């Protein structure tokens, strides 16, 4: 039906945005590449590319074919690796993480993986847990570290230690000599995780009591942005505690002691992967992550 070389050529046409650039890579004429694609379209009985304008784009059928063909290519590479180099990982590993992980264990974990598997190249994605779950389900990630509530059906989930959340303010803010109540916290603008995430929903919920004036609640998809806004005095914020203590910014922000009513639920992250296709790298990531997941949060 088709060869793996056809898949590689299609990928390069899409990546380069046209037939000419792909032809240059393979030291072929543009007409030769075009003829090969046309022959493949004839075999498949579908149009792979929309040629109605100057920019070459995949048709819906072409996109579906390329996605499935890429899965086949990865399966081929995995089979070859397992049979010819058992126990030795190589190639590209796609890891997705929630931003909290970036500020806690990611660097140490990747350094360990790099040392253990020098032939592996890492492709990293940082996103919300919900988006990571969808991306992994679409086979666009090999392993993801996400909130346990987001793990897609059929995936393995290995738990990490809970991540503690805390309330923080700019270092120059004068605090009373007692833990703050919800009513006192509500006097300030609050910056936290993006809307729709469990921490945002919990913060929104604890200020829903009728006797508390609801604060201005701001969400951000970037926790680094939250940290900078808090340090700059924009408002108080909710952040993972280790993100502050592991950061050079810890001198610009400080913890706010709060009453029990304002304490937030720990975040529970897991390392997730589909065992039928990514067991080896999944187990390697678990082993590396847990080496640096020993500090109580």
Automatic annotation (TrEMBL):
It comes from Thalassospira xianhensis MCCC 1A02616. It comes from the Bacteria. It holds the Pfam family HTH_1. Belongs to the LysR transcriptional regulatory family. Keywords: DNA-binding, Transcription, Transcription regulation. Residues 2-59 form the HTH lysR-type domain. This is LysR family transcriptional regulator. Gene3D superfamilies: Periplasmic binding protein-like II, Winged helix-like DNA-binding domain superfamily/Winged helix DNA-binding domain. SUPFAM superfamilies: Periplasmic binding protein-like II, Winged helix' DNA-binding domain. GO terms for molecular function: DNA binding; DNA-binding transcription factor activity.
